[in-house]
Write a structure and sequence with these properties.
Helix content: under 10%
Largest sheet: 5 strands, mixed, barrel
Number of helices: 1
Structural class: mainly beta
Shape: globular
Number of domains: 1
Order of helices and strands: EEEEHEEE
Radius of gyration: 13 Å
Distance between the termini: 30 Å
Strand order of the largest sheet: 1-2-3-6-5
Strand content: over 45%
Length: about 100
């Protein structure tokens, strides 16, 4: 189970520069939904450092029941300074581009 969940992103000059990341605080046994703690806005570099340090990070979306569910996991890209969402076979996907964005 992920330790952190990214729920939104911020783009500057066409490139992602910040993410809204929450600690995962609660998961009901047998459920795919979980609860999140308070969001922090951190830089892409800070998030990459979390992943590099072995922290489990996922992308999450709100459910109809107002809980949260995992969209996909997050993995570092080669070079270790950027990251991407990955599917169940660890192949990069475009899920980050489909998260809500703020101005």
């Amino acid at each position: 189970m992920a330790q952190h969940a990214i729920t939104a992103v911020h783009f500057k000059d066409g490139k992602m520069d910040l993410v809204a990341i929450h600690p995962v605080v609660e998961k009901e046994f047998g459920s795919t939904e979980f609860s999140l703690g308070t969001a922090q806005r951190i830089s892409v570099g800070e998030c990459a450092k979390l992943v590099a340090a072995g922290e489990e990070v996922c992308l999450a979306r709100r459910t109809e029941n107002h809980g949260w569910e995992i969209v996909c996991d997050v993995r570092l890209l080669p070079g270790g300074t950027e990251f991407t969402g990955v599917d169940i076979a660890d192949r990069p996907n475009d899920a980050l581009q489909h998260l809500p964005a703020w101005d």
